[in-house]
Amino acid sequence: MQRISAREAKNGFGRLIDMARAEPVTIEKHGRAVVVVIAFEEYERLVGHEDAKGRDVKLVGRPAKGEQ
After folding, report:
1. Model confidence over 9-59: pLDDT tens digits?
2. How confident is the model at residue 60, as a pLDDT?
3. What distance in Å separates the CA atoms of residue 58 and residue 42, rounded to the nearest whole number?
4. What is the Cα–Cα distance from 66 to 13, expressed in whole angstroms?
5. Least CB-packed of 8, 13, 37, 39 within 10 Å?
6. If residue 37 lies in a helix (H) or strand (E), which one and from where to where?
7. 27 contacts 1 by C-beta, under 8 angstroms
């Protein structure tokens, strides 16, 4: 799994998309992993095809506002 900084992700969003289509990419902020970006096909595989189309999808592990 590749790792990049939040700044690199922001400044090179197109590159981030290309990287995530090949393998998951960990985005770090202040040296700490905060999110992972994955290809939509991988997301579909993980949550199930029907859920990925927008039905009954729930966010899991999202921090409350102000938490990090």
Report:
1. 999 999 999 999 999 999 999 999 999 999 999 998 888 876 666 655 555
2. 56
3. 16
4. 25
5. 13
6. strand 32-37
7. no
